[in-house]
Amino acid sequence: MRFKQMVFTLFPILYMIFIWFLSSHPADAFVKTPFSFDHLLKESLHLIEFAILYLLIALAFITNGKWTKKASIFAAIIAIVYGAIDEIHQSFVPYRSATLIDFIKDTIGVAVAYFMMNKKYFK
């Protein structure tokens, strides 16, 4: 495996570890903005966070020459399932919560990225 392939294959795994690490701590443990809309800003990050995960998984497939419609669906499923796992994980973390609406936001982020990638690659 070439170095570039190995790096791009590791990116989604490292990103998932990063998500797990952040969700293992209270929401304001690392970043607390002085804005009155701090909570709203962090809530909207669910959309972006899991869209990025899908895109990193897609990039791993693309870099390894395995990008197909089935791979795209598989990448979306992985990202959505990880979103569910992360929500369950957060239910055990003090000062965190697991909500259906957060999972829906995670899924919407993945869906938007999925449709954008499919429009670009499988038109």
From TrEMBL:
Keywords: Membrane, Transmembrane, Transmembrane helix. This is VanZ family protein. It comes from Metabacillus fastidiosus. The chain crosses the membrane at residues 45-62. It comes from the Bacteria. Residues 9-116 form the VanZ-like domain.
